[in-house]
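cache lookup: miss for this entity combination. No prior model stored, computing from scratch. Input as submitted by user K.M.:
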Amino acid sequence: MKVIELKNLSKIYNPDTIPVRAINDVTLSVEEGEFTAIVGPSGCGKTTLLNMIGGLDISSEGSVDIGGVSINEMSESELTTFRLQHIGFVFQAYNLIPVLTAKENIEFIMVLQNRDAKTMQERSDDLLDRMGIKDQRDRRPSELSGGQQQRVAVARALASRPKFVLADEPTANLDSGSTEALLDTMAKLNKEEKITFIFSTHDQRVIDRAKRIIKLVDGEIVSDEPR
Amino acid sequence: MILYIKLAWRNVWRSKKRTWITASSIAFSVFFACLMQSSQLGSYDNMIDNSARFFTGHLGIHQVDFWEDQIIDNSFDQQALFELDLTNPSILMGVPRLSSFALASHGDRTKGAALFGVSLEEEAAFSYLERKLIKGDYNTERGVLMAAGLAANLNLNVGDTLVLMGQGYHGVNAAGKYSVTGILKFPIPALNQGAIYLPLETLQEFLSAPNMISSYSILLEDSQDTEGMKAHIETILKGKELGVMTWQEMLPDLVSSIELDYYGGWVILIILYVVIGFGIFGTFLMMIKERTYELGILNAIGMTKRRVQIMVAIEIFLLIFLGVLLGVLMATPIILYFWSNPILLSGDAALAMEKFGYEPIIPFALNFKIFYNQGISIFIIALFLAIYPMLAIKQMKIIKALKE
């Protein structure tokens, strides 16, 4: 089942002056349960492509379908709600809410989804357990290591039960040990629960774990190979 | 909602130094504004109280022509009042008064004087006249009580004889010799320089106006509740040759000077608010600029801008509430203290106050409205300034915010 379908997607900056094609005529689809890495040199358009898939940025041309729903025509508010219900985000800098504990950060997404207290409690406990950070549940981000913060970020991304998780350079700020541990966890989630992950990365360790590698150069897909 | 409040409260304390600086600046402005308004309102209350007690009452019943032409011939027979039922829970008390003018002489000195014929016993409760006695005896049947300033000008002392000359009821000559039995010192300079108090019957006899009084002065529970009581008394006086006036009608100069001073005070307060407004705006600006990235992330992970606005609005509310609360807590004990211990001016400051006809004290008012007004004013300012962060969030572009 296709969770993402991009058709002739382009992003053009400065269309009226000196047009710059950050993404140029990209067409691709991602099936449920994929573990995909988008790779390429800096400035090739990885983050821009991820932003458009995640509904954070609007495409200049082409279309983005998520789970069969076109997000191109959605209003800003509709897109925000759509992201909340269907897409999980993991950022390079973790971006947890600094004043909330690990558990509260995970539950925050579910509060936005108006879930009941019992569901939130069970889900956050389960995720903390699976991420191996249950003993860190009451700590704030500043009291956690980078690796632990990124695990909380992954747990937060999964809390809303999204269709897929977009991870923008998730290991860029992590040491080797933390990177391996995080990749192990994500690979396990992908394998056991069929959670779809799409990464943008430079990190060879991530690329080595990916089941599909899409290579971008100057905003165009130059290769798209399963492994 | 609990999580929003929790989030907002913790965000407020993320930057403790900034929060304390902002809250303190709000607190100090509320503190000064409360103190200023309390002293202003306290002075007004004091002026109204003094004027009402010594001159007009909060309400005054007169013969209908008296106020236009304040002569003895426009007085009325106090018997007319006995037929009226003036009992009302809003009325504290009422006193009959007869007033006139005469020349007061002692030795080779003569001065114009205001004569007040009063029931000394009732007046002690109405205007606390007895408390103004600084020398001699208060209770007198045939003597007079003189204001200290006038007594000094006439070189009079207790036991001396005063000669009064004037015009009595319907043009008869009025003249008499009276023993000075007491000296009074008034807070109001005009009274201190020219007042002579006599028992009501003594003055009636001097003016050949038996049973006549110029006014029946009424003291109300609330000095501002005059219009309602005026209407009530007007219905009682219907068909009689008597009218009732409020202190605002009888003392228009006092009303104008209070209004002028009140608005002048507001100009100073507005300047204070503008200064504090810039401080608050600076905080809001920082709150948004420093956190654009963070707010962008919240929006990215699914928090609608409206929800982000609510969260920031709660933060702003908490910050302002903290400042206002601190300000009120700081101001309350000080206002309480000065309310029961007014500042007594002395030296040049006292002379300057007296020169302008005011009692040389700075009294303070204790009124919930003072704290409420200042709190509400600051909240309105903050609410107005909060338009900026709300608009900034509304116009925020996620991609731009994530690049901050």
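stored under new cache key. The two ends of chain A are 19 Å apart (CA to CA).
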